[in-house]
Amino acid sequence: MEGLDATMIEAFERNRKYAGFFEWSPDRDLAEYGVVESLAKSLSTRGELFFSDLKIRGRGNDPPDLEAVDAEGRRVAIEVTELVDGKVAHAHHVGRTSEVAEWKRDDFIVGLGRRLKAKDARFGHLKGGPYPGGFVVVVFTDETFLTWLAVEHHLKGQTFDGLPNICRAFLLLSYFPGKGYPCFELKVS
Predict the structure, then answer these.
(1) Which pLDDT value is given to residue 125?
(2) At residue 189, does pLDDT exceed 60?
């Protein structure tokens, strides 16, 4: 029990004070696994789960962060990244706890596009390939004003271009009562 208490205390101390819903684990690998497990639950609820046998690759064996198997038994590479306003997160870190990012549509689209482009650029560095099931990117966020309704509105008609390596991309929001973990498949090309 003592080790568990120490782990919980470490997780609490490391937890970011702003937009930290998914930052529950002191182990980054486990946090990324938790994000993709939450995505899997959301997709499964909708009858859209397309992967199984999720595995952590571990530091030194990434990218990709995780791998899975698709319905045809092909390996899938999965990269996980966060969409967070770094300036506001830093403000909370130094004690300015009243600041919150607004995330107007243009800021949201640009920020999300940057996260996707950064992950797309890592494709050539994937270890342990090939990944015939494709390269999937999961972006997660716990931003206050990125509610499922706001995100649904912001993404309407949006395609993220210039991402030749990503076959599928998702945005996962933190838990919302009655909605579970809202997720959105992003249109990429």
Answers:
(1) 96
(2) yes
* Distance in angstroms (rounded) separating the CA atoms of residues 18 and 172: 17
- Residues 6 or more apart from 158 whose CB is under 8 A from it? 109, 186, 187
Q: CA 80 to CA 77: how far, in whole Å?
A: 10
Single pTM value for the model? 0.84
DSSP 105-143: HHHHHHHHHHHHHHHHTTGGG--S---TT-EEEEEEE--
Cα-based distances in Å from 88 to 28, 93, 103, 118, 177: 21, 9, 11, 21, 25
Assess contact for 144 and 152: CB atoms under 8 A.
Answer: no
Give the residue with greater pLDDT, 41 vs 30. Answer: 41
- With contact defined as beta carbons under 8 Å apart, do 145 and 87 qualify? no
* pLDDT per position as a tens digit, 95-108: 555 566 678 999 99
Nearest Cα to Cα of residue 50 among 70, 75, 72: 70
28/65: higher pLDDT: 65
Where are the strands (E) in 23-113, listed by range?
51-56, 66-70, 75-82
